Amino acid sequence: MFGYEFYVDPSRCIGCQSCVTACEECETHRGHSMINFDFIDRSETIGAAAYVCWHCDDPTCAQVCPSDAIKKGEDGIVQSALKPRCIACSNCVLACPFGIPKLIPEYEQMMKCDMCYDRTSIGKKPMCATVCPSQALSYVRPEDIAARRETPSNVFYFGNQKITTQVYMMTPPETRSVSLDITEFIWENPHGR
After folding, report:
1. Which domains does the chain have, with CATH numbers?
2. How far apart are CA 193 and CA 190, in angstroms?
3. How far, in Å, CA of 5 to CA of 68, rounded?
4. How far apart, in whole angstroms, are the C-alpha atoms of residue 100 and residue 52?
5. Which residues sit opposite 103 in a β-bridge?
6. pLDDT of residue 185 exceeding 80
7. Closest Cα to residue 53, out of 109, 86, 97?
8. pLDDT for 61-118, tens place per residue?
9. 173-179: long-range pairs with CB below 8 Å, 24+
10. CA dihedral defined by 33, 35, 36, 41, rounded to 10 degrees?
11. What kind and span of H or E run contains 144?
12. Residue 8's closest CA among 164, 170, 117, 124?
């Protein structure tokens, strides 16, 4: 769908997991959901977040693939590993800074969100964005997202590593990038919880 972009807004996720179920229906996923769904801090909040593949401009998963099984299309979409080439080594699973690829043991193949290529290649929206009731996952034109108070960003920093993506994350107003550093999340647990 020319002119449409994918937006993820974790602040809108209500935890219904309808995206997870819908993703299983995508023909290219063969009954497996490629949505990464997390509860933010289960002991303290009901907050949840659903994520799709970010489709990096320079995908680490493809860089580390020893059999050249992971390809990025001209449209910027990074596909699941090509079955004839995938050796199920898990390099891509371990290398992705977002933790997106999944090794599916029954197929001995890495699979990941491909933006429902079976749908988007014929002008339909990805399944997850079609069913999301809160628009936490949206596949819309940029002008349709401009009315939101959040700012879309497709620049992520993992420590000093800068990654730009095809998918945008909605961030607080005037935020130009998202910085993620695991050391920010490591904390001492004085209470043994």
Report:
1. 5-184 (3.30.70.20)
2. 8
3. 27
4. 8
5. 110
6. no
7. 97
8. 999 999 999 999 998 999 999 999 999 999 999 999 999 999 999 999 999 999 998 8
9. 173/149, 175/151, 176/151, 177/153, 178/153
10. -100
11. helix 142-145
12. 170
Tell me the C-alpha distance between 79 and 97, whole Å. 17
Q: Which residues contact 190 (CB under 8 A, 6 or more apart)?
A: none
The CA-based angle 20-25-28, given to 5 degrees, is 105
Structure tokens at 130: 């079609």
Longest Cα–Cα distance of the chain, Å, equals 54
Say how far apart CA 94 and CA 20 lie, in whole Å. 22
Residue 146: both structure tokens together: 């401009």
pTM exceeds 0.85 for this model: yes
Judge whether 18 and 35 are in contact, CB under 8 Å: no
